[in-house]
């Protein structure tokens, strides 16, 4: 199959787009979260799996294009877990993250939250995140369920505690006008969710600090297990988890605080909720691929910064490790 600028030559198991550039990563993640794959039929899925098997065993029927193979791989990767080879439950697929997560985002950003509504929406958000994390986990090595439960309980506890604590502080800020207080209150979900994400990463991956993670050479071969690379991976992932919710939980309150001052919406208050929902959906859909494309999943580190035994085991100057998402 000839390679072209529009459609590169197919490579089984490899990303279609260059992961060293932001635009390449953006195009890759737009494919990953494409909600159209949620509507793929069982028959279509089997056809895609069969096509990829035919390619693997050099038994492709004539006339199959590289574009068809890339599309088949996209559909399989969106639905089938790469390690277990089982279908991922639809709401917990990455392609379902925006459509199934948007109602929760809308709930988190509703104004005038009560204590009970804050607890419920933060719990739903962390429950959804935990299910997505578990469904898309690395299943090559068995991980005790207790690790996921620790991360889940820690994330829910930190999210609810910080959200309630900030709400109490805002309510006690007597110098703030009611309007200003309500606007500030809308930004509470961001620090609560960001801190919960950090807590989740720290609890679920702290064993990597003692055991290390695999570092790979230019050929993809494992050179060794590095605790230093593990520390970098966890720090990078934690930072990513802070950046991820920023546009989703910061932009809608800013946009809505402006829209609510328009005379049309002041006369038609019943339109506020549907407009708020559309703003959250659009912001979530546009921000998610941009945010997760800022950093490559496969990170690199200089061998000189790693343990001496790893430096002695390779001639490469730079090694690669999976940072995680």
Automatic annotation (TrEMBL):
The chain crosses the membrane at residues 97-124, 151-170, 182-203, 242-259, 271-295. Keywords: Amino-acid transport, Membrane, Mitochondrion, Transmembrane, Transmembrane helix, Transport. GO terms for cellular component: mitochondrial inner membrane. It is found in: Mitochondrion membrane. The keyword Mitochondrion applies. GO terms for biological process: amino acid transport; mitochondrial transmembrane transport. It holds the Pfam family SFXNs. It comes from the Eukaryota. It is a multi-pass membrane protein. GO terms for molecular function: citrate transmembrane transporter activity; monoatomic ion transmembrane transporter activity. Its main location: mitochondrion. The keyword Translocase does not apply. Belongs to the sideroflexin family. PANTHER family: SIDEROFLEXIN (PTHR11153), SIDEROFLEXIN-5 (PTHR11153:SF17). This is Sidoreflexin.
């Amino acid at each position: 199959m000839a390679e072209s600028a529009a459609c590169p030559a197919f490579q089984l198991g490899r990303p279609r787009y260059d992961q060293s550039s932001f635009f390449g990563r953006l195009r890759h993640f737009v494919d990953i979260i494409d909600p159209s794959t949620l509507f793929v039929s069982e028959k279509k899925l089997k056809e895609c799996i069969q096509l990829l098997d035919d390619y693997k065993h050099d038994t492709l029927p004539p006339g199959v294009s590289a574009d068809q193979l890339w599309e088949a791989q996209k559909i399989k990767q969106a639905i089938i877990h790469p390690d277990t080879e089982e279908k991922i439950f639809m709401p917990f697929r990455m392609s379902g993250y925006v459509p199934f997560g948007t109602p929760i985002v809308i709930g988190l950003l509703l104004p005038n939250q009560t204590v009970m509504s804050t607890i419920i929406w933060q719990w739903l958000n962390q429950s959804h995140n935990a299910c997505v994390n578990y469904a898309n986990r690395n299943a090559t090595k068995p991980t005790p369920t207790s690790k996921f439960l620790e991360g889940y309980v820690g994330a829910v506890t930190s999210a609810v505690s910080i959200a309630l604590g900030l709400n109490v502080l805002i309510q006690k800020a007597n110098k703030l006008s009611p309007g200003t207080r309500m606007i500030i209150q809308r930004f509470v979900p961001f620090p609560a969710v960001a801190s919960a994400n950090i807590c989740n990463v720290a609890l679920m991956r702290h064993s990597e600090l003692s055991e290390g993670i695999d570092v790979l050479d230019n050929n993809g071969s494992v050179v060794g297990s590095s605790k230093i690379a593990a520390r970098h991976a966890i720090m990078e992932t934690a930072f990513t988890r802070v950046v991820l919710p920023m546009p989703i939980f910061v932009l809608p309150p800013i946009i809505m605080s402006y829209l609510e001052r328009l005379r049309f919406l002041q006369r038609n208050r019943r339109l506020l909720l549907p407009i708020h929902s559309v703003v959250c959906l659009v912001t979530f859909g546009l921000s998610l691929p941009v945010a997760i494309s800022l950093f490559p999943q496969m990170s690199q580190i200089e061998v000189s910064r790693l343990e001496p035994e790893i430096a002695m085991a390779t001639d490469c100057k730079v090694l690669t490790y999976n940072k995680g998402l």
